[in-house]
């Protein structure tokens, strides 16, 4: 399925803007063998394809975005200005096998852009190559200064948050699709990015998983400030309340964004937590119940607008049948935002109701 491009104009993000990024991009897939860990590359290829000239990888990579496979020199000749590390691995680390490719990219005239936790300049070989070639090392995962502690104060405006049964299963795509649908209806709406890929797409945001935990809720409040009563902020979710590693980020974002509406994102093909196979995936019903229980602390009127299913592994007929069956079972709109159609239109209307 092809994801239509979306034009995003960050609203009120002066204090949370990402550094100005050099594009077009060459997307780097590392040595990834699990597509979910290449979500940054897929996100940029799907939602910012006009800023991407191709992809490259380290030995051992078995994943592809479908873009042309290019060397750094070929990408630079095609107009690329930066190599973007398109991997979001556990721990956000720079793999040893990546370093030669990154150095080669700088030698070909490309800057390096990273959304990982690890800092590019902390790798001696990369720092030396940057000095030698005059190329820039740009880290996106840097929160702004002066983030306050959360207050829980009710803010004006309307907010929608995507939440998930796990990581890397469609929270960003769902938020982007809902943002686009709201804008097409003529509503005042902004997409609020909370992760490195969303920030690269939108041009602004706060990397929530790089914020000290005491300030998570405050960062979410800062990201989505007071707005006009009819203005919507569609906020990109992070992690899962049920993920043993990342639930702290999810809870701080939930409390600070104090959503009026949330949409549960789920991959029906996934049975266990990604990268933590001893933990079973929670059910959609469990996520709805816990999100309402915890989210009502800062917004007693919080409600579930519906469910977003990632049906990429299913054929169209099988996906349509599953969406209908789940909608009847849950008593809520259930849609795949990438497939669109009447199911997604129903989800949009339920969120706006």
TrEMBL record:
InterPro entries: DgcN-like, DgcN-like_C, DgcN-like_N, P-loop_NTPase. Residues 149-342 form the D-glutamate N-acetyltransferase-like C-terminal domain. Gene3D superfamilies: NAD(P)-binding Rossmann-like Domain, P-loop containing nucleotide triphosphate hydrolases. Residues 53-143 form the D-glutamate N-acetyltransferase-like N-terminal domain. It holds the Pfam family DUF1611. PANTHER family: DUF1611 DOMAIN-CONTAINING PROTEIN (PTHR40690:SF1), GLL3100 PROTEIN (PTHR40690). This is Putative NAD-dependent epimerase/dehydratase family protein. It comes from Sphingopyxis panaciterrulae.
């Amino acid at each position: 399925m092809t994801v239509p491009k979306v034009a995003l104009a960050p609203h009120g993000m002066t204090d949370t803007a990402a550094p100005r990024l050099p594009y077009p991009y060459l997307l780097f897939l590392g040595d990834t063998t699990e597509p979910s860990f290449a979500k940054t590359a897929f996100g940029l290829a799907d939602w910012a394809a006009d800023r991407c000239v191709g992809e490259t990888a380290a030995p051992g990579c078995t994943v592809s975005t479908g873009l042309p496979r290019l060397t750094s020199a070929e990408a630079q000749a095609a107009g690329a200005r930066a190599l973007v590390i398109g991997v979001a691995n556990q721990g956000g680390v720079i793999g040893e096998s990546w370093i030669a490719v990154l150095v080669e990219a700088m030698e070909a005239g490309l800057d390096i852009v990273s959304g990982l936790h690890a800092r590019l300049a902390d790798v001696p070989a990369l720092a030396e190559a940057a000095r030698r070639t005059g190329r820039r090392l740009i880290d996106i995962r840097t929160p702004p200064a002066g983030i306050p502690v959360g207050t829980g104060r009710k803010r004006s405006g309307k907010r929608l948050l995507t939440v998930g049964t796990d990581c890397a299963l469609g929270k960003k795509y769902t938020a982007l699709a809902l943002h686009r649908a709201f804008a097409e209806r003529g509503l005042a709406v902004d997409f609020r990015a909370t992760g490195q890929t969303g920030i690269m797409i939108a041009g602004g945001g706060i990397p929530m998983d790089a914020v000290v935990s005491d300030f998570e809720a405050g960062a979410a409040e800062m990201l989505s400030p007071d707005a006009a009563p009819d203005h919507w902020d569609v906020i990109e979710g992070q992690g899962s309340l049920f993920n043993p590693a990342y639930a702290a980020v999810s809870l701080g974002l939930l409390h600070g964004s104090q959503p009026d509406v949330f949409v549960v994102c789920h991959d029906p093909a996934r049975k266990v937590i990604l990268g933590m196979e001893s933990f079973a995936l929670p059910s959609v019903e469990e996520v709805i119940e816990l999100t309402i229980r915890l989210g009502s602390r800062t917004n007693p009127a919080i409600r579930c607008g519906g469910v977003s299913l990632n049906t990429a592994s299913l054929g169209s007929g099988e996906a349509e049948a599953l969406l209908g069956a789940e909608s009847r079972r849950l008593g809520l709109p259930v849609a795949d935002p990438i497939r669109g159609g009447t199911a997604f239109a129903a989800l949009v209307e339920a969120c706006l109701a």
